[in-house]
Amino acid sequence: MKRKIRTGGRQKSRLALTALFSVVIFLYIFITSLIVGGILLYLVRHNLLMPGEEIPRPEIIIFHMILWSTCLGVLLSILLSRLSLYPINKVINAMNDLAHGNFRTRLTFHSGLRHYPTAEEVSDSFNHMAGELEKTEMLRADFVNNFSHEFKTPIVSIAGFADLLREEALTEKERQEYICIIAEEAHRLADMATNVLNLTRIENQTILTDVTEFNLSEQIRGCLLLLENKWMEKGLSLEVDFDEYFYSGNRELMKQVWLNLIDNAVKFADEGGTLQIAVTETAENLIVSVGDTGQEIPKESMGRIFNKFYQADESHATQGNGIGLSIVRAVVSLHGGEVIPSSGGGKTVFTVVLPRRKDGGRE
To answer: How far does Cα 348 stand from its chain's mean position?
Structure first.
């Protein structure tokens, strides 16, 4: 979800920043003038500026004022610059920590400056950036670990069974069994590589292309037929409830959404359970829900199920690669929609909300 920025507030803060620096400069000039004026007044009243003369010449007064102002200004600048540059030094130090990989760094100012509009905006923006970088680093580390694990597992299996095939004492039945396992693991690797490439392509796509109007209901039914062997093998009963709905979007990308959601529901449904698919509409949206009766998603895993290679239930790891839901969210987001997961009462449902386009409608 993108962070909303209020333009008016930013402009106001910029004016506040200008006012702050103006006040600082004014204080330097005012303090310097006040001190120099006091010194000159003291010297003139006590006839110490030019002994023996009651009224010093104007050029002498101007010369002494410039001299004393310059000396005092330099002194005040040295003494007060550390105080006025403190916020800038604090920001620079925090940025250096961030640049060295300490993404837990947070920027806070002292109480006197904390609630000033500009300081508040700088700290909020910096802390938001640091928080996002920390999340990105955590996701990157998880992705690398999971990616390595997911690719290593089938490779090890292929290598292990290939070594076993070298044994001369194998029976023909064992040999065929090992060959089948190698083929399955090779297909799993190929599917995983394809899904990673597809996800990368979708995530790097910022503009939705190849938009056409198509029968969404017919597409969902087609996906059910493609996965018929899987849900029939588990003895699942279907509860399908929708009329004919048309939608304007990328047909091929949306097909990946339904295939992944239905395949995910079949994988986690109990034997003999129920696979539920429903489509409804509002004036603004088409709403598709895909659910199953079976194992629930733990609450602690709900916020991570869309992460790449993450699988809440490791017992089903060999049946997938943890990329499907990432593809679903990426495609739906590209269409301007959202995916809402819910799990409880022995039932898990993924609800896809798709905003209608101008050329979309219902038959």
So the answer is: 25
How far apart CA 302 and CA 118 sit, in angstroms, is 37
The HSE-up count of residue 93 (CA atoms within 13 Å, CB side) is 10
How many C-beta atoms lie closer than 10 Å to residue 354's C-beta?
A: 24
> Sheet harboring 237-241: ordered strands across?
237-241, 274-281, 285-293, 347-355, 338-344
30: domain range?
7-133
Q: What angle do CA 119, 123, 127 make, to 5 degrees?
A: 175
2: three-class secondary structure by DSSP: coil
Q: What stretch of H or E contains 344?
A: strand 338-344
Predicted pLDDT of residue 2: 39
Q: Are residues 256 and 298 in the same domain?
A: yes
Residues 217 and 177 reside in one and the same domain: no
At 252-293, the pLDDT tens digits run 889 989 988 998 889 888 888 889 999 999 888 999 999 998
